[in-house]
Write a structure and sequence with these properties.
- Chains A, B: Catalyzes the condensation of farnesyl diphosphate (FPP) and isopentenyl diphosphate (IPP) to yield geranylgeranyl diphosphate (GGPP) needed for biosynthesis of carotenoids and diterpenes.
- Chains A, B: It is an enzyme of class 2 (transferase).
- Chains A, B: It catalyses: isopentenyl diphosphate + (2E,6E)-farnesyl diphosphate = (2E,6E,10E)-geranylgeranyl diphosphate + diphosphate.
- Chains A, B: One of its GO terms (molecular function) is metal ion binding.
- 2 copies of one chain form a homodimer.
- With 288 residues, the first copy, chain A, is an all-alpha fold.
- The first copy, chain A, has a single domain (2-285), classed as Farnesyl Diphosphate Synthase.
- Helices cover 72% and strands 1% of the residues of chain A.
- Chain A has a two-stranded antiparallel sheet.
- The two termini of chain A are 17 Å apart.
- The interface between A and B is large, with 56 and 56 residues.
């Protein structure tokens, strides 16, 4: 699985380099390239594996795979801004507003979101226009004010809320903040092939939640060098997390149960689902 | 023309209200509604008129018309941020980051950009998936790092450049900053109908430039109350504008020539083009 993940990440990087080459060498173009480098590429890999499961060619699937990475990169650049999470480091490097300035970071994020929709609707991607339009529509919904941005807004509101969030509220928040894009990624291959996305949807919902629980675990147990970003921020801010509400042992146990549910949901694909099942197990073993 | 513009604006507002109603009443949803209210709706009107010229139903055209207004609104919310143009007033009201805060304004802009792509790829919009995917693709290009965002970045860079921009450089900058979205709007009806977009493209290029020249004229001659936003900022900042480079009289003359070119370009549509020709003349007569 790690070899496949690394190979997928390399092809995604090469495709992103190619689509970004006509953007010139202004600050925004440089920032777009900078912000889309590195990372685990898990969302792109979910797209590529979902496509492979349904017989969709990798050359088609690379377009939505790069789209979701551009969208994810935009969200990180804006989340890191001083007015938002105010983070100086990301993926072991200075964040965009630290390396350039805030205006550049705002514009880089904005341009990366546009790029995501350019890539997902690109004629060399999914074969039919109907499918490309549908991928753009569902990506827009997963990203916007009823999906990722809503989750982010709830997360910010939680920081100043008089009482810590409940487990249910955090679960809802995370379903938007990280869950929506993970679900879009995992189901995209089924959508491209016109197949039933339900098994992958179930897989993705469980995986997304496990992913976030592990993020909370890393925030408590990880070290900043390995994680490539600040850790311990949530605890220092007194924010409710899965770990603060459940305790470390129970949070880890929940993540493990969710991963088993995720793996079970796609057992209908037989041996073809091995890689996605390994991805799910990797998600709760990672320390970064 | 003013009646039609007002009627079009009302239908666009009503459609936007409808699509935003399921977004709830959190800060981001409130900010999205706030930021999409008011304005002249010229871009939406170009979409509606372009559609009407090509026999595309208004119920279809309202989707891309609202998409371009959502996209335009996002760009204003982000442009007004302290790290960008740092404006407190917009359309006669406090800007989003003044009324709420910077984090909300960043998220509102982000969610409005997503909304634009949700609307443009919506199945009730253009009839074929191929067309919706194409509208999403071209909108993404017009908005992104080779279109509007590039123009905005060049504009910010110009503020700290050692020498003022040349006329050619300002023309290029404006082609991205305002021209790309105006061109997308004016050609969208032809794209929806599968007709040749060339006449409307020529119209839009001339109109977009005239539009920006008039903006520079208003910055010098207008008053803030009528304009609903700060004026005199460019002159105070010593920024090169069409007016500073050409003088007020010559700038106005150029805008008039451009409007005549715009009107001529769509004369092939005969009397059906009357309204778009009046829109062009309105653009250089407006004081806000």
């Amino acid at each position: 699985m790690h070899d496949r993940l690394a190979q997928g990440a390399a092809r995604v990087q090469s495709h992103l380099d190619q689509v970004l080459s006509p953007f010139g060498d202004g600050h925004v173009a440089l920032g777009m390239r900078y912000a889309t480098r590195g990372g685990k590429r898990i969302r792109a890999f979910l797209v590529l594996e979902s496509a492979r499961l349904h017989g969709v060619s990798e050359s088609s699937a690379l377009w939505p795979a790069c789209a979701i990475e551009a969208l994810h990169a935009y969200s990180l650049v804006h989340d890191d801004l001083p007015a938002m999470d105010n983070d100086d480091m990301r993926r072991g490097q200075p964040t965009v507003h630290v390396k350039w300035d805030e205006a550049t970071a705002i514009l880089v994020g904005d341009a990366l979101q546009s790029l995501a929709f350019e890539l997902v609707s690109h004629p060399e991607g999914a074969a039919s226009g109907e499918t490309r339009a549908n991928l753009a529509l569902t990506l827009a919904r997963a990203a916007g004010g009823q999906g990722m941005v809503l989750g982010q807004a709830l997360d910010i509101a939680a920081e100043t809320a008089p009482t810590p969030l409940t487990l249910e509220a955090i679960t809802d928040l995370q379903a938007g903040k990280t869950g929506a894009l993970i679900e879009w990624s995992a189901t995209s291959g089924a959508v491209m092939a016109g197949a039933d996305p339900t098994p992958l949807q179930t897989y993705a919902k469980a995986l997304g939640l496990a992913f976030q629980i592990q993020d909370d675990v890393i925030d408590v147990t990880g070290d900043a060098t390995a994680a490539g970003k600040a850790v311990g921020k949530d605890a220092a801010a007194g924010k409710a997390t899965f770990v603060s509400l459940l305790g470390l042992v129970e949070a880890k146990r929940r993540a493990e149960i969710l991963v088993e549910q995720a793996c079970e949901a796609i057992s209908c694909y037989g041996g073809d689902a091995d890689t996605l099942q390994q991805v799910a197990r990797f998600v709760i073993s990672r320390q970064t």
